[in-house]
Every structure is written in structure tokens, then in C-alpha cells.
Design goal:
The chain has two domains: 122-340, 3-Layer(aba) Sandwich (Rossmann fold), CATH 3.40.50; 347-515, Rossmann fold. It has 19 helices and 17 strands. Helix content is 41%, strand content 14%. The radius of gyration is 25 Å and the shape is globular. The strands form five sheets. The protein has a seven-stranded mixed beta sheet with strand order 8-5-4-12-9-11-10. It has 526 residues and is α/β, with parallel strands linked by helices. The two termini are 44 Å apart. Helix 1 runs antiparallel to helix 2 (19-36) and helix 16 packs parallel to helix 17 (430-447).
């Protein structure tokens, strides 16, 4: 986009300056063709997590409900509601077209689910992750990034298991005692249509995923290399010492050893987390600690660190970025664009259809609200969260009146199925819990919203927090008007799919309103 704007400027010069300027313009055109011809993208730690839009005119489709003048005067200086231009910047990133076939130009949902994937050979190589870091939105993004890295390493990625918005390499959990049967992680297909997932990966230059049993069978007679990344954050020492029961002196020795060439032997990893027994049928070979700040090149990681060993286990995977790994794989489509194109499981899609039918919102417009209060409480405190909710309610009332809509759907992390990290230092404080309860009660009283809850027995898979979250996600981006409080990867996922859906038809009547989505760097006692 930057190049095209400069090119327009060059045209203006050409009109005024004659032949020399025309020659200059021709050179600019040649540079433009050379730069924009390539369909691939480099993934880096600066990669935005936003929906990719081909045409700049799409930005005009973002409609914004602003505060009324009175509220605007009270709240703007506190950063409650960003300006329209800020919304556009956060929602859109303009990139060159991804070149596709005419049969399937941009509609990623239409990838053929019957497409054949790579067959397993006796020489096939694998990347297995034991502990997938973070909750559903970021964990999914991290997983897709891993598939991009694995493709360059000519490896398959082992499909994780899921439960309550978390991912794990094995059903029994990655640390501590093996989980009981009722608490086991569930198949990946509980959340996603795995066939579509793999075909998207294959179509856009990513490694595909294989089942755990395939990995175990293929690696049963191989030496498996285990890798622990020592990420550059304050928790690195604590996690290394805690997981592997290391003394201070042992930790210092590991840190010194790993800094010499970026990796070193760490023969305590398997014993510390009982990895070989957790996975089963695993013959452990080398155990390595790796500094991701020093090992940044994928080929170096594959050739020198893993030494092309067929079977490799990553203990703790955080993806690409600050305090994560620094690999930069090339793909045809950025990971976040692929994440926002994923298709969810039949279980979830059927539950969405059922809820719409019983709630009388099927084929009817409704306003959807998504509240991510965890970060608001961390950034601002409970009093400002209350003000944010007040602003949100004002906006919803305006939308109801303007668009003649009476149905409202609410999704919030304050519910019983919300974030498992929503734990406060003062959670036992009676006054705090009373305040939070009062805010919720008053909000529900004013909005009178619909809320999703599983309709079956308590032990049903529908009570899985991840299933609930994805069901609510589908109900959110199927609305006509979306209102959000807070931010985060999962919320951005909702916003980007919502925009992708409605940007196909500029005549659709839709809006996005984001309230209190900026972080204020200050320590707040809640």
C-alpha cells in the first residue's frame, strides 16, 4: 500500500516534469512488479494478529457508533473508546494478494476436505509438543506457527489434545499425576474440523498434523530428542528449576553452558517431567536446553541442534515473538489469516444451530456483546471496569433504537465458563466480590440479554470451557452488531471473522464498537 501511494505521487511528478519523470515512473513500475509478485510472507515476532484485507476500500465498511456528546466529553480523555481511525488500524492490515486458483480465489472455507495429505514414510520426521502455552486463541495461533516452522524442517506436527480452552500433547496432562479418566484431554476434533484444518495447512505452505499414535508407532524404534527452550523472561529460571528439581548452582551451570553456542546437554529433562512414560513407547536419546535468542535460524535448529533426528519433542511451546522463539518461516498466508479461516467441529456447529433456534435468533438480527473483564481488572481496577460497562450499555441502547433490534446476546469471562486465569489477589475479599456481583446484576438487569449455557447433563462434553467459548464465538460473529469490552487474541479472532463475513457485501448493515480496549501501564490493586 505504501508503494502504491508513492507511485501515485510519482505519476503527478511525471505529468509536470516530462520525459525524465516518465523514465523514473517506468523504473518505479518495474520495482512494484518485482516486489509484489511473490506470494509468500515472512513470519516474524512483529506479525500483527489482524484480519488481512486485499482492498483498501474495505476500510470504508467499518461503521462506528460514537458516544453522544455528553458521554464523549466525560470519557474520551480516559481512553475508553478509540477513534474510528484507531479501530481501522487495529482491525485491518493491507497486504498483497495471495495468488490462488480461479476455482478457489479467497474463500478459505471451501477447501476440499477430501484432499489427500502426505503419506507417512519410514523417513518421515515429527515435531511433538508436550505443553502448549496459553489459552485457546493464542495456543491455536502458536500451533499454526509451529506448523509453518515444521514445514521448512520437512516435519509433521503431532496433533494436540484439548480441554477447557487448553492444549496438551497427551490426554493425561503434561505435569504432575496422570489425569483421571473423567479429566483427560479430549481429541482435537472436539474443537475443530481436523480435515479442513489440515487441508488449509497443506494449501498454504504449512506442515500438516498427524495423530499421537502415528508418532508413537513411527518413533518406537528411534531415539527421540527432547528440547527445552529457555525463554527470555523472568519465569525462565523458576520453571527450569521447578520442573526439573535443579539447585541454584545447577541452573547457573545450564545457563552458562547454553550461552556458549545456543544449546547444551540437559540430561535431567525426561526424568523431571517423566516425559517418556507420559507419551509411552518413547526411547529417549539426547536431551537439550536451547536458547531461542541465539538459535534463531530454522535450518540451524534442524541441522545442528536436532541433527535431523526423526523424532523430536518440544517440552514447552510458546510460538514466535517476544520472550518466545525468533524463527522466521515463509508461508503463502500468514498464520493469523489461517486461524480466522478455521472451521469448527460438527458438535459445536450443531449446538450453535440449536441455541439459535430455541432463542428465536435464527435468521434474525441481534446485537452481540463480548466482555473480556480479566484485563480490565488488571489494567484499570473494578471502578473503571464499571464505567466501561456503563459506556457499553449506552452504545447498545443506541444500537437497539437506531436499528430496531430487541435481541441481545452476551458473552463474558465472568461466567462459570469464563477464563481459567481470572483469579485475583483479593479474590477472598468480601467487599470486592460484592462489588463485582453488583456490577453483573445491574448489567444483566439493564440489558436483559440472552446467554449461552449447555443444555445437557453436567458431565457432557458441551460443558468443556473451550466448547462453550467456541460456541459463543460463533454466536458473536453471526450477530449483526458486535460490541466488545477489553482485548486479547480470542476477542481479536471474533472481530476478524466478523469482518471477514460482512466485508463481502458492502450493503450489509453492521457495526463494530470497541470499548476500553487499550492497556494502561500501571499497577492496579483490585
Amino acid at each position: 500500500m505504501f508503494i502504491r501511494r508513492n507511485l501515485v505521487y510519482a505519476v503527478k511528478i511525471a505529468l509536470d516534469s516530462g520525459f525524465k519523470a516518465c523514465l523514473f515512473l517506468s523504473l518505479c513500475l518495474l520495482v512494484l512488479v518485482l516486489i509484489e509478485d511473490g506470494p509468500s510472507h515472512v513470519i516474524s515476532n512483529q506479525e500483527p494478529r489482524h484480519f488481512d484485507v486485499v482492498k483498501a476500500s474495505r476500510i470504508e465498511l467499518v461503521q462506528r457508533e460514537l458516544l453522544n456528546e455528553n458521554a464523549k466529553g466525560r470519557y474520551d480523555e480516559q481512553g475508553f473508546v478509540p477513534k474510528t481511525s484507531d479501530i481501522a488500524d487495529r482491525v485491518f492490515e493491507i497486504i498483497p494478494d495471495v495468488k490462488n486458483t480461479s476455482e478457489n480465489e479467497t474463500e478459505l472455507y471451501q477447501v476440499d476436505a477430501t484432499q489427500n495429505t502426505h503419506a507417512i514414510k519410514s523417513t518421515s520426521k515429527f515435531l511433538f509438543v508436550l505443553h502448549h502455552y496459553e489459552q485457546l486463541g493464542k495456543a491455536t495461533h502458536n500451533l499454526v506457527q509451529l506448523c509453518a516452522i515444521a514445514k521448512q524442517m520437512k516435519r509433521f506436527v503431532v496433533e494436540p489434545f484439548v480441554r477447557d480452552s487448553r492444549m496438551c500433547g497427551v490426554p493425561g496432562g503434561w505435569s504432575g499425576q496422570q489425569r483421571k479418566r473423567s479429566r483427560l484431554f479430549r481429541p482435537f476434533s472436539t474443537y475443530f474440523d481436523v480435515d479442513v484444518f489440515n487441508n488449509l495447512l497443506s494449501s498454504f505452505g504449512y506442515a500438516t498434523m498427524k495423530k499421537l499414535e502415528t508418532f508413537k508407532t513411527s518413533c518406537s524404534n528411534e531415539k527421540t530428542t527432547i528440547v527445552h527452550f529457555i525463554y527470555a523472561d523472568v519465569d525462565a529460571e523458576q520453571s527450569l528449576r521447578k520442573w526439573y528439581n535443579l539447585s541454584v548452582d545447577q541452573y547457573i551451570k545450564v545457563k552458562n553452558d547454553v550461552q556458549r553456542r545456543g544449546y547444551c546437554d540437559c540430561p535431567f529433562i525426561d526424568k523431571g517431567l517423566n516425559i517418556s512414560n507420559r507419551i509411552g513407547d518413547l526411547n529417549v536419546g539426547r536431551e537439550l536446553c536451547v536458547d531461542p535468542e541465539k538459535i534463531r535460524n530454522i535450518d540451524e535448529f534442524e541441522d545442528q541442534v536436532l541433527q535431523n533426528d526423526r523424532c523430536a519433542v518440544i517440552v514447552h511451546w510458546r510460538g514466535i515473538g517476544k520472550n518466545r522463539t525468533n524463527f522466521r518461516p515463509r508461508v503463502k498466508l500468514k498464520p493469523w489469516s489461517l486461524v480466522t479461516s478455521l472451521k469448527h467441529s460438527n458438535l459445536i456447529r450443531n449446538e450453535v444451530a440449536r441455541f439459535k433456534e430455541v432463542s428465536f435468533i435464527d435468521n434474525h438480527p441481534y446485537i452481540a456483546i463480548h466482555i473480556r473483564s480479566e484485563r480490565q481488572l488488571q489494567w484499570y481496577g473494578i471502578e473503571k471496569l464499571n464505567k466501561c460497562i456503563a459506556v457499553m450499555i449506552q452504545q447498545v441502547e443506541k444500537l437497539k433504537e437506531m436499528h430496531k433490534i430487541d435481541k441481545i446476546f452476551l458473552s463474558t469471562d465472568l461466567s462459570a465458563y469464563g477464563s481459567d486465569t481470572l483469579i485475583f489477589p483479593s479474590a477472598q475479599d468480601t467487599e470486592f466480590k460484592q462489588k463485582l456481583g453488583t456490577i453483573q446484576t445491574e448489567m444483566l438487569k439493564q440489558l436483559q440479554p440472552l446467554s449461552y449455557a449447555p443444555h445437557t447433563k453436567r458431565n457432557s462434553v458441551l460443558f468443556d470451557k473451550g466448547v462453550v467459548a467456541i460456541t459463543e464465538m460463533n454466536l458473536l460473529f453471526d450477530s449483526s452488531h458486535l460490541v466488545t469490552i477489553g482485548s486479547g487474541t480470542f476477542q481479536q479472532w471474533i472481530i476478524d471473522v466478523f469482518i471477514k463475513k460482512y466485508s463481502k457485501d458492502k450493503h450489509q448493515n453492521w457495526t463494530i464498537t470497541r470499548v476500553c480496549n487499550r492497556e494502561e501501564k500501571r499497577n492496579v490493586k483490585i
